[in-house]
């Protein structure tokens, strides 16, 4: 792998904590590390649309060191380029301190920091003993982080999940910071909250950490970011330094545009509707043009998944496009992605040739709302990108909760039933 990029600081002058955070521009809007999804082409698109800082996909430290094919596919000379892909944090999953350090050394001249994944809740992480399944081995976590802190020329950061107990979560956060993590990202969900049991992230617990940890501690919050205004809402509610988005960014990369104040309904000719919820044909075209100019293998491997997510509401109405995307395989070329893009553009062109489209092309607030901090949900036309709401027990819910007549969510009801 060719290593390029600006010279890094020596350990003696390495910035830490808030000084490091300020040196990368005090970012507020952050693209989360995601398995195979926050790769170079997607980061370029997200940066164009307002992201201040991006993380790479989660990279497997041992494979990164021992398998050149994997390393070259996941991270090449264009990753972390000083003019197109900074600031950048490279995230690794690992359970061997020396192997993690070797992996980090391979990228330290192409990024601004290295992050340890302590949040992945998937079964593959359980089997491999990494991610959130290191929560039970605090000694190993300390060794992993501290080894990087002592031996890297750039800072180490960490992304964690919470425990059910706020006191244990606070002790855990302090432990991670004491090992040398210079920024702490807190995903406000427990290890068990995944898939159909994802539910709402706990902003109250994140706020508790912010209040209990020293003011100079840099904290990022992750969870519950569905719309662009949720970024400011989270910053205000939790008091953290920045907000990270994963699924919200994947389904609508325009989630990071500057905040726009608007009233309901948004007129069809209002500029903000296109800023906040771009038409699928326009966002797909912009993504395709970036993909076309990004030869990285990881970007092309991820394109199929990105198209499915960008077009999710559109595909339910135009199933032929779904079939075209499903047919993409390792032998597909950039022309196959071009044909899909052009097909979508033609369908939307016909839609907007309808004289009545202006009456339909508006955003309305839904009757559904979150009980945590005043979030409102919106009905968005299917030809525009929009958030994805995970199904819970087979039902599509708003924000992961089913509104109940008494205003209490399912977890609260279950707790009351156990008491009785």
From TrEMBL:
Enzyme Commission designation: 1.3.1.88
UniProt GO molecular function: flavin adenine dinucleotide binding; tRNA-dihydrouridine16 synthase activity; tRNA-dihydrouridine17 synthase activity
Gene Ontology terms describing biological process: mRNA processing
Matching PROSITE patterns: UPF0034
Keywords noted in UniProt: Flavoprotein, FMN, mRNA processing, NAD, NADP, Oxidoreductase, tRNA processing
Cofactor(s) the protein requires to work: FMN
Pfam family, one: Dus
Span list, region Disordered: 394-420
Domain of life according to the entry: Eukaryota
Signal peptide positions on this chain: none
Listed InterPro entries: Aldolase_TIM, DUS-like_FMN-bd, tRNA_hU_synthase_CS
Biased composition, class Basic and acidic residues, residue ranges: 402-420
Chain ranges of the DUS-like FMN-binding domain: 31-295
Family per similarity comment: Belongs to the Dus family. Dus1 subfamily.
Name recorded for this polypeptide: tRNA-dihydrouridine(16/17) synthase [NAD(P)(+)]
């Amino acid at each position: 792998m060719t290593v390029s990029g600006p010279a890094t600081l020596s350990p003696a002058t390495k910035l830490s904590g808030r000084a490091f955070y300020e040196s990368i521009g005090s970012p507020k809007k952050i693209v989360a590390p995601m398995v195979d999804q926050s790769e170079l082409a997607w980061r370029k698109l997200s940066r164009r649309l307002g992201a201040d800082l991006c993380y790479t996909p989660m990279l497997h430290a041992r494979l990164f060191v021992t398998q050149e094919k994997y390393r070259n596919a996941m991270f090449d000379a264009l990753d972390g380029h000083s003019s197109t892909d900074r600031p950048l944090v490279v995230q690794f999953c690992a359970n061997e301190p020396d192997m993690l350090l070797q992996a980090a050394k391979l990228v330290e001249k192409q990024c601004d920091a290295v992050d340890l994944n302590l949040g992945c809740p998937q079964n593959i992480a359980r089997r491999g003993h990494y991610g959130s399944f290191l929560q039970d081995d605090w000694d190993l976590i300390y060794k992993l982080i501290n080894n990087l802190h002592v031996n890297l020329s750039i800072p180490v950061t960490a992304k964690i999940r919470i425990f059910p107990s706020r006191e244990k979560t606070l002790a855990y956060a302090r432990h991670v910071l004491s090992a040398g993590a210079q920024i702490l990202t807190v995903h406000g969900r427990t290890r068990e909250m995944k898939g159909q049991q994802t539910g709402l992230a706990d902003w109250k617990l994140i706020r508790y950490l912010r209040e209990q940890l020293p003011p100079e501690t840099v904290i990022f919050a992750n969870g519950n970011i569905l719309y662009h205004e949720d970024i400011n809402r989270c910053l205000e509610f939790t008091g953290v330094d920045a907000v990270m988005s994963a699924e919200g960014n994947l389904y609508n990369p325009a989630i990071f545009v500057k905040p726009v104040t608007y009233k309901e309904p948004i007129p069809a000719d209002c500029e903000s509707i296109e800023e906040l919820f771009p038409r699928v044909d326009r966002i797909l075209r912009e993504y395709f043009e970036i993909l076309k100019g990004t030869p990285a293998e990881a970007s092309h491997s991820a394109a199929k998944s990105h198209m499915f997510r960008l077009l999710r509401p559109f595909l339910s109405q135009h199933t032929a496009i779904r079939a075209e995307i499903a047919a993409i395989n390792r032998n597909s070329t950039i022309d196959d992605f071009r044909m899909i893009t052009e097909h979508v553009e033609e369908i939307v062109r016909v839609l907007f040739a309808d004289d009545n489209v202006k009456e339909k092309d508006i955003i309305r607030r839904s009757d559904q709302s979150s009980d945590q901090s005043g979030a409102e949900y919106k009905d968005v036309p299917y030809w525009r990108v929009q958030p994805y709401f995970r199904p819970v027990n087979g039902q599509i819910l708003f924000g992961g909760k089913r509104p109940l007549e008494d205003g209490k969510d399912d977890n609260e009801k279950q707790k009351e039933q156990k008491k009785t």
